[in-house]
Amino acid sequence: MLYPPMTGETIEITGFNNDKIDAYLARPSGAGPYPAVVVLHHAPGWDEWCMEATRKFAHHGFAAICPNLHHRVGPGSAEDMAAAVRDRGGMPDEQVMGDIQGAVNFLATQTYHNGKTGVIGFCSGGRQSYLAACKVTGMAAAVDCWGGRVWVPEEDRNGKPAAIDFTGEMSVPLLGLFGNDDQNPAPAQVDLIEAALKKNGKTYEFHRYDGAGHGFFATDRPGYRPVQAVDGWKKVFAWYDKYLG
Amino acid sequence: MCTWIIHHANLMGSGKGTTGWFPIEQANVAYDHPADAPLDHAVLIDFVNADMGPAARVAVELSAQSARGLVQAILNALDDGEKQHAITDQPTPLLVHSSFVD
Question: How far is B67 from chain A (nearest CA, A)?
Fold first, then answer.
């Protein structure tokens, strides 16, 4: 067996409002065609673990791109930019959806692309992935890894809709991975999301892990749960093999 | 989970960052995912100067209990200071009396 060569590089793509933003692109080095995945980083930022996850997709035969959704508050380190975004209470959904659309559009023009693109997000990126499944065009599958605040209680909405309100617009099948010890989304919240998907007749698959909390894929954090994470990654690749192959 | 819990305090003082001292104007105090501390959640305090960009930041990540200890230590220091000195937030004015022969 031979591991295929891959390339990894930081490139510039056109995001929301035609802004140029950085993105990390990792892909098999061959001519393709390869399915593609847009990787949405977690709230701690466009950090090393998210680049490792992006390369993991390349290792499994995907062209993967991870846009720096915090780019506009830079320049600075990933941690400094994440801190600045945290201070602002996050990023506007419209901007993030525009950046994801830009990443999808970029992939669609690459000669090595097979024409099918998925999206996956972790933590805050999980919520953004759910929303992208409802708002972004040109995708074939989505994965939400423990995205918090997909469902938001009425008293915390400040008159704004929550991602769950757009479930009727979801245009791609959704895989959801959750830890049963998580508090956001807590299992009861995952129940509400699942009920919304059922009510709207959407194609989905949820897997809920005992003994895991939030962010259980993150190998550099104390919440890492190797057994659950290994199984979760298998679920992710099976999902994309089914819908992006 | 991402809590997005954050509070702010206006500050007057200085912080020492990676490139030296700079004026601090605000503390951003969050309870959320730390980047480095071996905790699921921590009290994250960023002493910042927003006008100088995101790198103008002195960051600490503290366990909840140790953060409460820090708060108490600050209050204790202020109490002791008030007993010994008149505490003022007014910066010392810069007065320069120069003389030279050209």
Answer: 18
